Amino acid sequence: MEEIIKLTAAAIIGCICIALIRQYRPELSLLAQLAGLVAVLVFSASVMSRITDYCRDFLSEGIIEGGYLKLLFKALGIAVVAKIGGDLCRDSGNNALAFGVELASKGAILLLTLPMLKNLVEITSGLLKG
Predict the structure, then answer these.
(1) Which residues have a Cβ under 8 Å from the Cβ of 82 and sit 6 or more positions away?
(2) Angle between helices 66-91 and 29-43 (to 10 degrees)
(3) At 64, phi and psi to the nearest 5?
(4) I need a surface site. Which of 4, 44, 102, 130 has the fewest CB within 10 A?
(5) Mean pLDDT score of the chain
(6) Is pLDDT of 1 > 70?
(7) ∠ CA 45-113-62 to the nearest 5 degrees?
(8) Where are the domains of the chain?
């Protein structure tokens, strides 16, 4: 909870700084947004370390297979990169390009999960056949 409050406060301060920069030097506002994003990502590293600790626990206890966890992180990575890229495109006034980035990422995630879906269908049909 504390991390989220600190993260939100840092983001709000970043937004205020970006708004000030946009008034006086609009061409630097995109760079300021990128710097703010990097700062927030570095700040949230502690949350990410906890997530990886939980994932290690899941793997060591056999709760989830490593392949599925790897797939989950790949899909999460695609979604995060696409969201950041789409938002940057949108902020620079290229809504169509942002839509294209987000659509392509959804297709990539679907393509990534199709083997898992196929495996799930095979297991289900095997159980139903007896």
Answers:
(1) 101, 102, 104, 105, 106
(2) 150
(3) -140, 150
(4) 130
(5) 86
(6) no
(7) 65
(8) 65-130
